[in-house]
Each structure stands twice: as C-alpha cells, then as structure tokens.
Amino acid sequence: RNIPKGNANHFTARLVESLGLATVCEHARCPNRMECYARKTATFMILGDVCTRRCGFCAVKKGKTRPVDPTEPQRVAEAVKALGLRHVVITCVTRDDLPDGGAEHFAQTIAAVRAMTNATIEVLPSDFGRCFSSVDRVCDAGPDVYNHNSETVPRLYLPVRGRKANYRWTLEMFRRIKRRCPEICTKTGLILGLGETYQELFDTFADFVAAGVEILTLGQYLRPSPDCLPVARFLPPEEFDYLAERAKEIGFKQVFAGPFVRSSYHAGEVYAATRC
Q1: What is residue 275's predicted lDDT score, i.e. its pLDDT?
Q2: How far is CA 240 from CA 11, 30, 120, 246, 261, in A?
Q3: What is the distance, to the nearest Å, from the Cα of residue 71 to the centroid of all Cα atoms in its chain?
Q4: 220 — phi, psi (to 5°)?
Q5: Whole-model pTM above 0.70?
Q6: Coil, strand or helix: which one is 217?
Q7: Whole-angstrom Cα distance, residue 141 to residue 113?
Q8: At what angle do helices 72-83 and 103-116 cross, to 10 degrees?
Q9: Quick check: helix, strand or coil at residue 151?
Q10: Cβ-contact 92, 50 below 8 angstroms
C-alpha cells in the first residue's frame, strides 16, 4: 500500500493513543491503516484488545481478558467528535466471558456517540455467543448499520471461524434484525482466497440476500501472521469486479469489492450510496 504524504496519519494515531482506545486497524494489521488514519478515520474496537476466540484468519491478540472499562464509551465519543467523523464504525473483540457478550457496552457506546456527535453509526459486533437477546439490545440502541461478517462460505466455517461460530445462526440473526428493526441497514463481508469456489460464493450471496442483508463487502485474505491460515489463492482485480456484478444481480443493494476492501473500509461512502 502507498504511504500517504505528510503526517496526517500521526494525528489519528496520537488521538487514539491519548484516549487509550484500540482500533481494529492496528490490532488486526489492516493494510489500509495508514490511508484511513491519514483521512482522520478509524474503526474503534471496544471491550478491550484481547479476544476469547481463535479464528484462523485473525491477528487480534487472544488470551485472558480484562474487565470492561465503563469509561470507554465516552472516550470513543470524544474521539469521534475530535476526528469530525460523519460515519463511525464500532467493532469489538469477542467476549464469551461476558454474560451478554458485551451488548450493553455496545448500547452505551452508541448512546455516548449520539449524545456528542451527529455521526451515523455502524456497529460490527461479534455473534454474542449466539444470544439473540444481546442482538436485540444492540438493535434497540438504534445503530444506522448492523454489520456482521460471515467471513467465508459454510464449508470453511470451522477452520476460518472456529467451532463456536454457526452459519445458519448468522442468517437467522439477520432475519431477526430485519423483523425487529427494518429501518436498520444490514451488512456482511467475506474474505476471499481461502479455498472457496464460485458456486459456494453464489449460494452464500443468495442466502444473505434472502436473509435481508443489503450491503456486501468482498476483499482478499492477506495472511496477517505465520500463525494464521495460509492464502489458498490471490484473486486478480477483475475477479472482484465479476463477483461484485454477480452479487448485485443476486440482489444486494450495494457491493464494495477489491483486493484491499475490508468491511469498514470507506464504510461511510458505501452506506451513503445504499441510502440514495
């Protein structure tokens, strides 16, 4: 990735550090971090920086978690205001150690951002241990976008997402969100190059459209560390264009696809295009 000219990325990095916040940009080793930081945007990762799961694709630290910090929602809101964000993405580590998976903390963060800014809010939670009441709590807090990444096709769920994730539950979660809060925009993302086939992708696209998902992101899997799954294949850019066209034909309102696309990359522009 090209390194941005100037030092604009340092402003975002210093702000995040000064407020004691974590970003998925840094902890997941996103290739777009310097570009996004230079644009004064970041994807905030709440509930700490240690995950309780060991997904095969992810570089976020795993291990023993710490207690949830009750001041974190306010600090996220302060960062959103200082950066002047019009659209903010809030994600998290998976916290299977918490009874609600961190849903109440999400709701408090949404409320804090709403109180201090006019930014539209996109949440990217875990599956909350497959707890529907936690999904309901986040929905009732009123995010503009509910994003949950499928990451891959059903056949690869076990090696990519681990034993606790469940493809069919994910589909039912999106159906539930649309029944409960039809005004919330729904979104999912897949990383490609893990051994999936075109037919598996097309079937997965159709499943999510049927479940009410409106936005799809497709990006190339880039192995973040030697401990993660190897790349099975690097897709050329024209394949991303082809898959985006097919996904729109299948029924997604908006598809953002490319080698460096990630679910929160240019999320504000993608959301705005969906609502037009």
Answers
A1: 82
A2: 33, 19, 28, 10, 10
A3: 22
A4: -80, 130
A5: yes
A6: strand
A7: 11
A8: 40
A9: strand
A10: no
Containing H/E element for 35?
helix 33-38
CA distance 232 to 24: 24
Q: Which two tokens stand for residue 74?
A: 């306010």
Residue 3: pLDDT band with limits 50, 70, 90: confident
CB neighbours of 115 closer than 8 A, spacing ≥ 6? 77
CA distance 38 to 5: 9
CB distance 106 to 126 below 8 Å: no
User: What does R_g of the chain's alpha carbons equal in angstroms?
Assistant: 17
Count Cβ atoms within 10 A of the Cβ of residue 54 and give its class: 0-12 exposed, 13-18 middle, 19 or more buried. Answer: middle
Q: Which two tokens stand for residue 248?
A: 């729109």
Rounded to an integer, what distance in angstroms lies between the CA atom of residue 212 and that of residue 179?
9
Q: What is the pLDDT of residues 200-240, one digit of tens each?
A: 999 999 999 999 999 999 999 999 999 999 999 999 999 99
The tokens for 172 are 């039912």
- Give the separation between CA 237 and CA 259, rounded to whole angstroms: 7
The Cα–Cα gap between 234 and 92 comes to: 28
Classify 20 in phi/psi space as left (phi over 0), alpha (psi -120 to 50) or beta: left
